[in-house]
Amino acid sequence: MAGHDDAIAARYPQGLLFPEAVMRQVRERFLQVDHNHAGRPRMYFDNAGGSFRLKAAVERFAQIDAVPDNTERIHPVARELQAIQAAGSDDLRMMLNAQGGSVHAALTASGAMFEMVRAIALNVPGTNLVTTVLEHPSSYDAMERYAAETGRELRVAPSNPATGGVDVDAVVRLVDADTTLLNVIYASNISGAKLDLERIVAAARAIKPDLYIVVDAVQHAPHGLIDLQKTPVDGINIAPYKFFGCRGSGLAWLSRRAAALPHHKLSAKPEGFWDLGSSSPWQFAVVTEIADYVCWLGREALRELPELAAALQPDGAAEPSRRALFAAGIERIMLHERALLARLLEGDGAARPGLRGMPGVQVFLDHPDLTLRDLIIAIGIDGVDCTQAVHAYGLRGVTVYERSVASLYSRRMLDSFGLTGAVRVSPLHCHTAGDVDAFLRVTEEIVQAQRGAPVFESNRASALVQ
């Protein structure tokens, strides 16, 4: 499958919307796509803060969590729960294209990240730790804490305001033979810029072949394919609630050598075992539901796009593997989301401008190559504070999120970009071109209201749901 994602990106640089029949089925599989929990019409463009939930995932969560049986027993129900956990672990490895290693189920992805950083920092020799300014606090603060605790230097790669990401050279030049750990985010949760992880890993390991590398994939995993055979790292985490799943779960995969490092565990458990106490079987059942959904979408994509089938099945196998189906599903999500991103930025090509051409709107960190971005946009509206803008969207039935220097989750990243705040817009592949057009109409209305122009009722929330 080497290079297939580059080939598909080159063929569809502006993305490709789902066929209408597939779009209808996608939306049917999710909860609250066009309304909130109280049944009120709403456009939810804050999926970077927690994505829409798959109906199947929520139903499976309730079904499995209702079972009182302990997994560490030998009766049939316990065996069934053990099989569910084993299948979920296998599916996580499949989703990451990981071989062996250990799967760690925690309450949150942040908790899993802290534990991985702790184990490596406390047990691997070296004089410095390397990370980037764009890290989520769960990564950055863990690195900062254990650098201080172990008396090591913390080296921080700067961002590139032109791309919204971090350049490969900016990371790699900080790595040397004495680097203990490199911790890097897969994609920015403010700009959507994807870091070139394959080149970062290869270049860093060329400097220090046995370097430990940990990756935060929480933001990127629902939007792009992860392949640990191409990017061999020692630890990576995801958050199911940002990947169509449920809250209360964080999952990580660790390489065999990382899992074997001293860590918090019961003494009688195997060396590479990372869970403390009894894991919740529903966590693993939800992973399988996520994988099943993406594989279904992948099967549809292979029928729709022969070039995708050729790239993912070069041997011409009659029946694609589960990994091939999953890869096709994620690729298809990526294409649809890229088309939504293009429409947000450029409009419909006719009467309505996109955000790039809309007077009174600034698009921050706007790199022109959409293949290098996940579906996140940071914008500003002239004369309107980002928090006020979010409130104005909310009054019109649209949920977005402010990223402000007043927030502990945003200050460091925004400072690096020279910004004081932005409105983060993060749709999901469940959204349609019509949803994007409705969002653009609302944005125009907010700009007009700021300028004192007339506001038309047809633009309000009642007209949002397509």
Give the secondary structure arrangement, pairings included.
Elements: H1 4-11, H2 20-28, E1 43-44, H3 55-65, H4 76-96, E2 102-106, H5 109-123, E3 128-132, H6 137-150, E4 153-157, H7 168-172, E5 179-185, H8 197-207, E6 212-216, E7 235-238, E8 250-254, H9 256-259, H10 281-304, H11 306-312, H12 322-346, E9 361-364, E10 377-381, H13 386-395, E11 398-399, E12 401-404, H14 411-417, E13 421-425, H15 433-451
Parallel strand pairs: 1-11, 3-4, 3-5, 5-6, 6-7
Antiparallel strand pairs: 2-8, 7-8, 9-10, 10-13, 12-13
Which short descriptors sum up this protein?
466 residues, alpha/beta, Aspartate Aminotransferase, domain 2, disordered C terminus
Q: Based on helices, strands and strand pairing, what is the structural class? A: alpha/beta
What does the largest sheet look like? 7 strands, mixed
Please indicate the percent range of residues in DSSP E strands (runs of 2 or more).
Answer: 5-15%
* The named CATH superfamily of the domain at 67-85 and 96-281: Type I PLP-dependent aspartate aminotransferase-like (Major domain)
Widest sheet, order of strands? 2-8-7-6-5-3-4
- Give the low-pLDDT segments: 454-466
Mean pLDDT: 93
Architecture per CATH nomenclature, i.e. the level-2 architecture of the domain at 67-85 and 96-281: 3-Layer(aba) Sandwich
Q: Separation of termini?
A: 38 Å
Which topology of the domain at 67-85 and 96-281 does CATH recognise? Aspartate Aminotransferase, domain 2
* Count of individual beta strands: 13
Helix content: 40-55%
Quickly name the level 1 CATH class of the domain at 67-85 and 96-281: Alpha Beta
H/E order of the elements?
HHEHHEHEHEHEHEEEHHHHEEHEEHEH
Any idea what the shape is? Answer: globular
